[in-house]
Specification:
Blueprint: H1 2-17, E1 22-32, H2 39-49, E2 54-59, E3 66-71, H3 74-83, E4 88-98, H4 105-115, E5 122-127, E6 134-139, H5 145-153
Amino acid sequence: RDAGFSLVLISNLHKLSMQNLSVQSVTQFSATLDNVPGSIAKVSGALAASGVSVVGFSQMPESGGRVRFVVDQPAAAQKVFAAANVVVSEEEILSVVCPQDRAGVMAAFSKALADAGVNIEGIYYSSAGAKSETVVYIQTKKADVAKATEVIKAL
C-alpha cells in the first residue's frame, strides 16, 4: 500500500519536473579501444585538435575498452576516427535536455518508456547537480527511436 502511494507521488513529481524538455536524435559513436592508459586521451585529443567537442561520453570498467562518444560535429568526428584508425559503429540515440535536475528524472524516463514497451539498451546521464541542466542520452532499438521520442515528449 505504501509503495502504491509512493508511485503516485513520484508520478506527480515527474509531471512537474518534466516541463520544457528538449528531445532530439543524435549520433553515438561506439568503439573498442585498447584498455590501457592513454587510449581515451589519444582519441579525445585527436577530436579536440580537429575542433570536435565531446558532449557525451561513456565507458564502464566491465565493458573493457568499449567507449561511446556523442560529439557536436559527427561528420568531422568520422574523419578523425578514420585518420586515427579507430573502427567505430554509429547508432541513433536520444539526447534529452532537462532544464533542471530533480529527484526522479531517470525514474520518469525509464517508467514512461517501459510502460510504452520500449527497452532502454543504454543510458548515461550528465548533471552539474540539483537544479542544474541535465542531459540524458538514451539508446533503444533503432526501430523504437521515434516511439521513444514521442513518449518522452509527452512527459
